[in-house]
Amino acid sequence: MATRELYGGAITASIPASFLDASDLRQVPDTQEVFLAPDSDLSLIVEVLELVKDEGSADDLEAAARFLFSSLAHDNTALSSSISSVSLPSAAPRPSGPGQPVVLGPTVLAGTQTVSKFNRPDSEADTVLIQQALWRIPARNADVTLCVNWPVRMGETGEERGDDEARKVFDEAVRSFEVKDFGLFAGGDAA
């Protein structure tokens, strides 16, 4: 694992040193940081979003995590999706430093989505484990998500794969996640 500077150093997280920065390979939206394992289908995506308020999620972290998972399923054109667990933050929110805004989270969600990739028929869709962490910064009207995606069943071959490596990568990235510069977030108050 190596500490990676995301968004020009505004956020840091531990990500395997071998993971490739997808922006070196293809265009990535400015709101995302995408990393790919060089030898598997494992990917890690960090995204900065405007604070979601749909479906009661403005004041409810669990509802927000569920809404974002559902939005991802829609974006992935998932044939099906299911949530297996949602864990709310165990500690009371507190400022991240003197004069800094409160960061709520992480709210951690795990689920699967059935996704047909590479123009394969639906009968050959992959089952993808999605692990999602959500941090909310209300004073800046921002949400930050960190997602690890890992196909646990390959639809084309039916091969089933363990998820230990994906869970390890996710857990370490979430544990080490830190906002260093709140200037990254355009919305809300200055402090």
From TrEMBL:
Top-rank taxon, per record: Eukaryota
InterPro entries named among the record's database cross-references: Mog1, Mog1/PsbP_a/b/a-sand
GO CC term (a single one): nucleus
Keywords, sorted A to Z: Protein transport, Transport
Alphabetized Pfam families for the sequence: Mog1
GO MF, one annotated term: small GTPase binding
Biological-process GO terms, alphabetical: protein import into nucleus
Similarity field: Belongs to the MOG1 family.
Name recorded for this polypeptide: Mog1p/PsbP-like protein
Organism from which the protein derives: Rhodotorula graminis (strain WP1)
